[in-house]
User: Fold this.
Amino acid sequence: MFSKVFASLSVLLAISVQVNAHAAIAPALGVDGTPVRADVQRPSTASPCGTVNVASTLDTSTPVQAAADGTFTATATDFNAGADGSRSVTAKVDPTAQGKTFSTAVTVSQNGDAAPTTVGSDQIVAALPAGTTCSGGTAGNLCLVQFTTTAGFGNCVVVAQGAATGAAAANTTAAATNGTTTAGTTATNGTTTATNATTTTTKHHHHKAAAAQAKVNKVGTRAPRALLADIESRGEEALHVVKRGVLSWVWA
Assistant:
């Protein structure tokens, strides 16, 4: 008998929590896309982000981007009208994004309706405290912000700062260094190629000049040789004339 009563009370409690789950803030930690009623949590000291497993969902959840001055925007949506569906929130931040310690208040400069007459959404504008450094997540630049409505509902939201720290920053620096090295190597190769091209051109001109000089030399020696050959041929002709003259005188 007691077990049946206990079971009935458990069911009623679960149903009441589901029915009273009246508002969520997007993008919600551990939720893919727009949150629905079942995604609403009841943040508490023991469970700051409700029943969501922070470690397994932090890096896969959609973050909101914080501006240089720490401001960021989220969206509060209610699923029931009235005070229970309040879209008015307070917020705290955990810079380590471990979801354990939310001790620093976040300033909310634009809040939602505390007693909406209809189901709808309000834009929430908030700002991380000055000097906050988000260090969570694989990239080392994530914070967790806990939003709680005046009705006690809400959830956590991942906030990303502009510049990654830690390992992510080291990877970025390494990539930049590699890019500089590649550019330097490319420039050096370009200079080497240009030098080789100049050397090749110089050698080509040298060969052309040598060939031209050889041609000149060849032409320059051809004229004297022709002259000598002509003299020799004329000398032989003169000798034949003399020989014929002597023979004619002898036989005369």
Confidence is low (pLDDT under 50) at residues 4-19, 165-207, 214-224, 238-243. Helices lie at 2-19, 54-57, 167-251.
